[in-house]
Amino acid sequence: MTGASGDAAGGRGGGDRHSVDDRAEFSALLEESAEDLYEHAPCGLLSTHLDGRIAKVNTTLLDWLGYERADLLGRTHFSDLLTVGGRLYHETHFAPLLRMQGEVSGIALELKAADGSRLPVLVTSTVRTGSDGQPLLIRTTLFDARDRRAYETELLRARKEAERERERLQRLATTLQRTLLPPALADVPGLNVSAYYHVASVDEVGGDFYDLFPLAEGTWGLFLGDVCGKGAAAAAVTSLARYTLRAAAVYNPDPVAVLANLNTVLNHEYNGVDPRFCTVVFGLLTPDPDRGGFHITLASGGHPPALLMRADGTTDSLPTPGGQLIGVLADAHIATTAVRLSPGDTLLLHTDGLTEAHVHSVDDGENRYGDDALLDFARALAPTTASDTVDAIRDLLDTFGTGVDDDTAVLAIHVPRPSGDELP
Are 318 and 337 in contact (CB under 8 A)? Predict the structure, then answer.
């Protein structure tokens, strides 16, 4: 028992001795001389005459650069340690600023080591003055910036890689978007046509689409629509909708039958956990040989109303109330309207990216552009032509700037007046 107690006591005594030794070593470190702190500081330190000749340098900097103290003291100027570009910057910027301000802080430079390698550093220099206020010497602190330089280099590489990837995706999106639009609209005798697609974001593929194409002799089909969402999923629905509409119109050109066919296809393909739908208007054009102009029957599945700008300057919307979204319900209601386009008349179809654009006003702040504003805009244009209408819409969209957060498609058709009577 006694031995055990003695061992325990000895153990405690050994612990106490270690504790005393640690405290003594800690106190000794606290009492290190200022010279030792200077020599082995975690940064490079040097003092120079006003002309830049090195008067004092610490061991840390000597170790970094691989020089002996005698190699530098009184023989070398601070600028001699810099790379060619660093010397040029020192003479043209660093030194003049130091003379004017008395201090320059955090400047990134590169030092040349004795073996020719380069050491990136952050440099801070301060002019020290005597009791009479006259400058006596320059004290400079240098921090090793190798880790920071490596980090910045990697960050720059990653940023460039991200920029290249974004450019690649933008090209891909632009190419894919182009494939979802017709390369050219059909040339309809007696009709002028103009279309425009406004891309809200170059990073994503939109879901708007349009087309004008021949059917049986003397008839033409047209459509304009907007698929919900953006990106690859929306592009897939857009492609399916375009080709379904064209195929259905060839099989049975009745506008209601065409949209009913599309509704069946979309409802069958996308009725699971990720339903997809669209708004769309389909029109059947037939010429009126007796009076000139065209007859058009429009069928709409939840799409914004078309605008009709008459030759006499009057303008009205062509509402199709009750038309339901295409693809949501198995038996969607499809609304129709019919109108005759006389010489001088222009019909405008558009997607809701135009009317839902954000606009600012002094009184109400930010609002949506809206159907009423677009109708007033069209009334100010009438009478007009297809190309003038689309040009005006393009200019209008440009005024919205970043307020347009959804793609916009417009399709305008115009029946020219008899030769010599057309608008200038």
Answer: yes
Say how far apart CA 412 and CA 313 lie, in whole Å.
16
Provide CB contacts within 8 A for 65, sequence distance 6+.
Answer: 81, 111, 112, 113, 114, 119
Rounded to two decimals, what is the model's pTM? 0.62
Instruction: Give tens-digit pLDDT for 170-192.
Output: 666 666 666 667 778 889 999 99
Tell me the pairing of strands 220-227 and 346-350. unpaired
Question: Are 198 and 404 a contacting pair, CB within 8 Å?
Answer: yes
To the nearest 10°, the Cα dihedral for 266, 269, 273, 277? -10
Tell me the one-letter amino acid at 88. L
Please identify which residue in the block is written with the tokens 């629905």. 237
* Cα dist from 89 to 62, 75, 79, 84, 156, whole Å: 23, 22, 10, 9, 23
Residue 299, CA distances (Å) to 5, 56, 87, 241 in order:
103, 89, 76, 15
Look at residue 128 and tell me whether its pLDDT is greater than 60.
Answer: yes
**Distance between CA atoms of 383 and 76, rounded to whole angstroms?**
84
Contact 252, 282 (CB under 8 A): no
Does the CA dihedral 170-348-387-415 come out positive or negative?
A: positive
Three-class SS of residue 185? coil
Using alpha carbons, select from 94, 50, 46 the residue that is nearest to residue 72. 46
383 upstream amide cis, omega within 30 of 0: yes
CA 101 → CA 105, 133, 141, 163, distances in Å? 11, 14, 17, 40
pLDDT in tens, 191-249: 999 999 988 877 777 778 999 999 988 899 999 999 988 777 888 888 889 999 999 99
Render 272-326 in DSSP notation, one character per residue: SSS---EEEEEEEEEE-TTTSSEEEEEEEESPPPEEEE-TTS-EEEE--TTPPPB
Name the DSSP letter for residue 156.
H
Nearest to 341 by CA among 389, 307, 296, 384: 296
